[in-house]
Amino acid sequence: MSKEKLKQIFIEEANDIIEKMDIDILNYEESPSNKALLNEIFRGVHTLKGSANAFNFSRLGEFVHHFEDVLDFFRSSDITPSASHVDLFLESVNLIKETLEFEISERSGHPEGYEACLNQIQKIISTLKTTPEPAQATITCNDLAQEFGNEIFDEPMPVQRPDEASFFERLEGEETLYTIILTLDSDIYLRGFDHFLFFKNLSHVGRILASFWSPIDTCTLETFDSEYNYFRQVEIMYATQSSQAQIEEIFDFLEPQEYRIVATPRPTVAQPILNVVSEEPVEVASVPLAKEENKEIKAALVQKTFLKIDAQKLDELFDSIGELVIAQNYLGENGKIKAVRDAEVTKTIENLSKITKLIQNRVMSLRMIPIRDTFEKMKRVVRDSSKKVGKPIHLVLQGEDTEIDKTMVEALSDPLIHIIRNSIDHGIETNVEERRKAGKSDEGIVTLSAYHRGGNIIIEVKDDGRGINKEKVYQKALERGLVKPEDELNEAQIYNLIMQPGFSTADVISDLSGRGVGLDVVRTAIESVRGKVEISSVPNQGSTFLIILPLTLAIIDGMIVRSSEKIFIIPTLCIIESFRPAEDEVHVAGSKEEFVQLRSELLPIVRLNRVLELDTQKPNAWESTLVCIENQKGKFALLVDELVGRQQVVIKTLGEFFAKTEGVSGGAVMGNGEVALILNVEELY
Amino acid sequence: MEEKHAKGVGLTANRFLTFYLQEEIYGVNIFDVKEIIAMMKTTPVPKTPHFIKGVMNLRGNIIPVVDMRIKFDMPEIEPHMYTSIVIITIDGKNIGFIVDKVEEVVNVDDENISLPPEFGSNVDTKFIKNMAKQKNKVIMILDLVALFGEDELGVVQALSKTA
Asked: What are the extents of the domains in chain A?
């Protein structure tokens, strides 16, 4: 593998780690007693440090190194990080992100705030370390030798070896006690092994009760060689149910003289232990901690057996499945096959159909991921915005396990950030008094939820603020010329105005939102994934943004209609209802414009065959079918010859050749193998 | 692709798939041809130029289909048993071309290939890259990029951009 490719993998991994760190830190802030989380963060930073140095990303390496120190300090002490510490952690993550970008683009210098943040980190270490135990104080030093705590060697602390019997007391069930003696050669690191590798492997099949380390004569700082094994002998007390042969497998790659495994029988007959040469052995790993950590690592390993697959390959697989479905439909609808009235044939075809559906669903599910990560990311957004505008905000997450198409997740992040910022900036009351008066808690509540509704995925962002001021919105829209005074708008239409380009009701443009671009971007982004946004609001109770998305990008629920002998598909999401009007409900204004009365509303009639220039026929509206459709501009009645049915269709693009063909957004292959066009309702009227 | 045309050396560069439109023989570079299929039903796309017959389903992918007769201002005819669609890859995109009849794959020696004359064909000469003499026949080698390269695609897009 080329270095470039390795680098690419590192960058991808690093980004994942950084993203996860952000979330972990926020979660840790909520439950500071959760050491496991802190360990998780630490592990991420540690991995980052290793790889950064491997790729000569020295700036990143340096920063992460110090950050690791701070984390390690909190990890190994009982001190809980304060809010300002957490702020610094988050700031550090930001800087790590920026530094990484600097490294990737090979820009020189440091990102803004690099030095300041580093100083602060070092300050924390120096102020905090004055109190705790002396051993820990050395950790923070840059000096390699001191970092390893070499004063332990200077003043060897004699460790009392526990009695053999005490180990037997700790055996559980069928476990046997083994004494493993590792006499690894001094060049062991160069051969790609180290003691901890074996510790890790051992802990997969048993428990390490204790280990005793016998260092060779301690060396001086000047002569220390990091590639030289200074431990002449390590003695491990090991409890396992596995046989001796199984343990030996772990050490397969070692020279036979480098290890010795001795089963120690229970001291029914008191037996002397082996003659261990150990001058002042040092007990290193405290037993319960080591055990717990190993378990965690194991659990993490089990959880994360993911396979990275090129999205392109997945798309290709998806295409092939699409073809399979079409071929299978063709088979199922083939008249000749149907005419064969044979139980075997029918059964086989039914079976085939079932399997095809199953494969289709499974392949679809490959693209689906829980929305959790996206939601978790919003915690950071809420925290930052809340600080910036000085309003305390509580974020509630619901339905994080709802699964959503991977491509949609990517498109969803930015709109969500915009909406949440908007809610915090404009929705939640600036004044706590105002909230109290309305009987609300001091803390503003923003609820982010995801759920399924009628074949769609709904993402809801709700705040309990003051709601949207309809009058103000309308006035502003008039000022900006977005609406004309004679336009009659219903509630939803007025709310929709705030997503028009160049609209902003904030009196003062704030750093967060209010530039009048935000919500416009939201609408465009959501529409690009075939979704739509609905806004509702109750004065003094808050506003709700509903993002309605199709289940996947690839499949839509479509209404099949016929016009001038041709089949078209209308996305069901846009259809409100369909009806056949009575003759007296149809009105003609002048000689061209037609309208239809639907209950209290007067809707313009749009003839599909005319819009698409299929032909010039003009059947009477009361003898045709009208489909009431809502788009950005409002409602209209689309006149078609008849409704054929409703079907899930796989969307295909028509390709560059027909890019932006007016009125058509794509095509779908129907059961008979022919292509039907999917209508773009925004462009019909 | 341009390079391949430009080199024009050896046998491989001069292999053409020939087909009929009315009484005339045309050829395209065999390396641009993806496959040949029998005529199948196409779905017309509204508001596109007349010569674009519509779209069709090529094993799950939707590709545009062009009626060569209309493109070359020849009278339209009903599809018959020889009517075929030649699928050609242009700039990585597949496009189907409806032709009257697919003839054969021919090798043409370099000395039998010449530049097109200024007149004498129903087809605007800018679409004709070369003339190839083969036995007693003359094959008009089409320049697909000129035919459906950026310019033509641009026209299609411009037409629909009025949205």
From this structure: 3-142, 164-303, 311-369, 371-550, 555-683
For A18-62, what is each residue's pLDDT tens digit?
888 888 888 888 877 777 888 888 888 888 887 777 777 888 888
Backbone angles phi, psi at B156, to 5 degrees: -60, -45
SS (H, E, C) A464-490: CCCCCCHHHHHHHHHHCCCCCCCCCCC
- Please give the residue of chain A at the shortest CA–CA distance from B96: A657
The nearest CA of chain A is from the CA of B128 a distance in Å of 22
**CB–CB of A564/A614 below 8 Å?**
yes
What CATH code would you report for A371-550? 3.30.565.10
| Residue A300 neighbours by CB distance under 10 Å | 11
What is the spatial distance between Cα A271 and Cα A268, in angstroms, rounded to a whole number? Answer: 8
Q: Which of A675, A679, A683 to mutate to test the interface with B (most CBs of B within 10 A)?
A: A675
Best B160, B161, B162 member to test A by mutation, with max A CBs in 10 Å, is B160
Q: How confident is the model at residue A483 (pLDDT cuts 50, 70, 90)?
A: confident
Q: B159 to chain A: nearest residue by CA?
A: A661
Superfamily of domain A555-683: CheA-289, Domain 4 (2.40.50.180)
Q: What is the 3-state secondary structure (H, E, C) of A577-631?
A: EEECCCHHHEEEECCCEEEEEECCEEEEEEEHHHHCCCCCCCCCHHHCEEEEEEE
CA-based torsion, A64, A69, A70, A75: positive or negative = positive
- DSSP calls for chain B: -HHHHHH--HHHHTEEEEEEETTEEEEEEGGGEEEEEE----B--TTS-TTEEEEEEETTEEEEEEEHHHHTTPPP----TT-EEEEEEETTEEEEEEESEEEEEEE--GGGEEPPPSSSSSS-GGGEEEEEEETTEEEEEE-HHHHHSHHHHHHHHHHHTT-
**Fold designation for A3-142:** Four Helix Bundle (Hemerythrin (Met), subunit A) (1.20.120)
Identify the helix (H) or strand (E) that includes residue A55. none
Name the minimum distance, in Å, from the CA of A656 to any CA of chain B. Answer: 8
Tell me what ipTM this predicted complex has: 0.77
Domains of chain B, start order = 2-160 (2.40.50.180)
Amino acid at B51: F
